[in-house]
Amino acid sequence: MSVISAEKFSLWKKKQISKGGDNNSLNLLIDSLAGLSNKELNLLKIKSEENLNLKLNLDILEFFWDKHLSTSIPIQYLSGISFWRDLKLEVSNKVLIPRPETELIIEIIAGILKNKEETINFVDLGTGSGAIGIALALANPNWNGIATDIDKNAIDIASRNFGNHSDQSNLKFYNGNWWDPLANYKGEIDLAVANPPYIPQDTYEVLPMEVKNFEPKNALLGGKEGLDHINEIVQKAPIYLKHKGWLLIENHFDQGDRVKQLFLENRFTSVKVLKDFSGIGRFTIGRYK
Length: 289
Hints:
CATH class of the largest domain: Alpha Beta
Shape: globular
Number of helices: 12
Helix content: 25-40%
Strand content: 15-25%
Number of domains: 2
Radius of gyration: 21 Å
Order of helices and strands: EHHHEHHEEHEHEHEEHHHEHEE
CATH architecture of the largest domain: 3-Layer(aba) Sandwich
Largest sheet: 7 strands, mixed
Number of strands: 11
Strand order of the largest sheet: 7-6-5-8-9-11-10
């Protein structure tokens, strides 16, 4: 623990921003490693006379900030922490950094499955850090969840994340590709959700360096048109979903119409493309028959 005056800390922070980078990234680093939240940072403006208790000293924080500036490594990978909704998640370069727009998935599901007392089976396909599955399991203790991922490292991280947030047993983790670990759950799933790799090849090649060079390729690239994994998920969904079971998929900003058509071709009804914070058709949802 390092004790420092708010005035000295503010001067240090101004020095770091003068080197480059952006304030949000620096605040994220401070929150992740020093334990000083954005709310507490904002209070410094009116409580400049107070002392601060930091988990790390300023020299170590500055080392990590300099490394971020020189290499473009995302703050989340430097700190090993990502904040998503109200979750503090362990991450590494084996899993995708959870995005703010993906948070809407939880709101969409809350809107279609309003009875929290009802017991349902859900699956989070390609769970990564576990963000979606964990959020659903915590919000709905009566729900029984399964999270799958093809990468055993991701399954280990997601499992630890759930254990860090809950002592419940309503979320299980299985290593395998999409539906493959669910042979014993055919026809038993009420809700399946996936944020699969959907970036088209041409788009992937020109992604920002901090994304392309550090985040796992297998969590981003969805084939030539970005639809390889979405096709597989939708086409196999009828094997595992109950009658009137829901499938919700996050897709690329320009894929909504094609994904909707894919749902319809596979006998889904009530198919809709829903918009994200930017008004982009980011999510496709439908019910099986």
